[in-house]
Model the fold of this input.
Amino acid sequence: RNYRSRTECRGDIQRLNPSFLTIYESLIPPNEEKEKQKQLMALLDKHVKKEWPEARLFLYGSCANSFGFRKSDIDVCLAIGDADIDKAEILLKLADILKSDHLENVQALTRARVPIVKLMDPTTGISCDICVNNLLAVINTKLLRDYSKIDVRLRQLAFIIKHWAKSRGVNETYQGTLSSYAYVLMCIHFLQMRSPPILPCLQEMETTYKINVDNVECSYFDQVDKLQGFGSRNNETIAQLVWGFFNYWAHSHDYANDVISIRSGSLVSKRAKDWTRRIGNDRHLICIEDPFEVSHDLGRVVDKRSIRVLREEFERAAEIMQFDPNPCVKLFEPY
Ligand code: CTP
Ligand code: MG
Done:
């Protein structure tokens, strides 16, 4: 069998839709969870405002980008105007303040790559990580959430891909595989590249939202309610898209030359970004451009060993999607 030229998927692909949709629905968080998150945020806000009246708290990551599963922890960003503050000092102070309430396991991890305060709220049962002034993450969270409002197939695809990655052990950045954030960018890119496209490129459209964060200009079209029905000329279903996603990363992506870029809604060349050589620990073996920090390759965690693991997993998944009589079992089998 010649995999590289595989362009046609199995004839019975549509038969698989109900199983994928059932899995998607089983992963969506119930509304009560949102309520509990709000309750915890209000509590945290009360404490923070007492010490720093000007400061603000933002949710970011999966609890706010619409790609979070049920029972996940929440990520919070404490925004304190001053850019030159000592983050460690703020976090130690924050931990002190929060310890005085009935919150549990309050810990300041000031030497982590992203320094945080961790805690658990026994009232809601939610665990939470609080970082300081990580506003780019708050903005890219909004971008992802805005994309998810345009076509429900993005949320369906991303849930399935994240569930697959977690089941197969390839969602572990400390082991050289990809973050959930990277997988969602891969899904957005994939849907921008369908023909006809299922998603537009919001950063190439008229600017309706603009903010400058850490000297990075973030701007894009955020009136996504005006884009309802954008993808309706394309009638691909979730099963076809899952098949296409794995087939792309297993057999079509040009790992040697291409960078996926949701910022430009297309592929860009590694050469144009000067990502052709290893520099320090950045090997650029799979290249995923951050939409705002464009010098940032989300694939930089991937090394010689883990790129093999990843590609073998893409190939395994593509194989299952093409030939397995019941892909939904095999695909998510624990590794
Ligand atoms: N983030 C980022 N740059 C990265 C990794 C993460 O800016 N290289 C930010 C993004 O805002 C992302 C958030 O951190 O939404 C959390 O990242 P991650 O844990 O990968 O994603 P989650 O959506 O929280 O996924 P999970 O459900 O696995 O927790
Ligand atoms: Mg997370």
Q: What stands out?
A: The chain has ten helices and ten strands.
